[in-house]
Amino acid sequence: MTNLTKEEFQLLIIEAVKKVNEDNSKKVGNTTDEFLSQREAAKFLRISLPTIIRWKNNKKIPFYQEGRKVLFNKSELLHVLQKNESLLK
Q: For the chain, what are the domain ranges?
């Protein structure tokens, strides 16, 4: 075990966190994933709240749920809609 000063130890931690963040950003195409609530996703897509809920229930769009909280990944929504433009017609 080496003897590091408090400042050296802090710098090591900062560099390690930066490295992890860089690695994670490469995995998602150098963009930060943004998550939206149901209401935010409906507003973003310019559709009604009941429509986005129906799409979610029919598994037409990906979503994440923990308890009662439902979130949509903005980039995943865009990807699905690009592949299936008929959803917006």
A: 35-88
